[in-house]
Every structure is written in C-alpha cells, then in structure tokens.
Design goal:
Helix content: 55-70%
Strand order of the largest sheet: 1-2
Amino acid sequence: MFVILQPCFTYKALPDVMAVYFDFFGKPNFWLQKTRFFIIWYAIIGITNIATVLVPLIIKRFPACMFFIPERLYWLKTSEDNKTECVQIISTALKVTSLLINLILFLLYQCIIEYNIISAVYTPFTIIIALEVTAPVFALSYPFIRLQNPKRD
C-alpha cells in the first residue's frame, strides 16, 4: 500500500524531468518526464498486484495438461483437495514474490526521491540487487520444492 501512496506525497517535490535509472554506483543514466514515469510506475504496480490476485483464480480452471509441475498426476488428477493444495502453494509463491517486488519498487522509488530531491542516493543498491535476485529464485524454486514430494496416503 505504501508503494502506491508514497509517490502521491512526493509528486510535487520532484522535478519535471527526473533521473529514474541508476548504475551500480548510484549514478543516474536515464531520465524521464515526471508524468510518463508515474504512468509506467503505476502500471507496473498494478500489473504486479492484480496478477497476484488473478493468477490463482485463473489456474484453478486450467486443465491438468497445462501444468508443468513435479508429480502432476498426483496434484491434479487424484483429488480436488490435491489440486486445491497445489493452487495454494503456487498462490503463496506469487504473494511472496509480489511482496518482494513491492519492496524492490519501494527501495527504487527511495533512490529516485533521494537523487531528484537531495542529489544523492543513500539507499544501498546491494539490497535492491539482492532482492532482485531473490524474487525470481523464490518464485521459481518454492513451488517446485513444495510440489516435489507429495504426501501420499
């Protein structure tokens, strides 16, 4: 929620042309008009968070042949409870990944505010990079690890 509200509070303080992309050392190397930046910013936030809600609802309706997961027959063919648990595992992975993406966006916006308002970046880029690596690794590995060895009765 804060990632949505924070730009609203800082919009007027930002210049019309903003540094929006930085190298590893915190030096800006891409600038964008403020309105164009905010359109892109809110589109990214919207798509990320809407997908987190919609994907689990949509995948419940997919046929088993569209899932490429370990032990597919167990999870999707044996019982409705197994399919529900499978969707829950995938949904959990999406929610945590969405949370990580929102944290990355928050930290990136902090960098943008810092540079464009006070001309220095204090947010450590190593944290952002670590989160950018962690999010996709978690999103891809968590469901496969959890779905690898199903509980068989």
